[in-house]
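ESCALATION

Customer reports they have been waiting on this structure for their group meeting. Please prioritize. Original submission:
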Amino acid sequence: MSEKPRNSRIVQAAEAKNAANGPKPSRTTGLGRVIITVYGILALAATVRGVYQILTKFDEAPVAYILSVISGLIYVVATISLASAKRGAWLVSLWAVSIELVGVLVVGTLSITHPEVFAHPSVWSGYGKGYGYIPLVLPIVGLWWLYRNRNERHA
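Update from on-call: job pushed to the front of the queue and completed.
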């Protein structure tokens, strides 16, 4: 007598369901968690620094201090959107990180070519020199990470 495979269709359906419901890679695990953490640290550092400078010595370097607050707010948006799994968070992250990269490049270049405008350094002055060039490297890594996880944009 030949043996019939028992419940083969049921087993296949169960395996397919488990594969579909299994864990999916996420922007918020592994390297993504490190990126989000660094963004969070920069968000806190830049925002607090900028607000303190505006409140205590705004007349000394208003452009630099306003840029520090703006960069801090961009870091806040990037941190929240990178950590979010909500629909549209991927696109918000893409915009925030892209604006950050443009800001670092523009402010970094202007701070070198027109140092008189930047009486005191901002977060992005000298391409983030005061922060170990992390403001320059982080958006590049962030954009790469978003590109790598682009299939999650509608998650």
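Sent to customer with the following note: The longest helix spans residues 31-57.
Escalation resolved.
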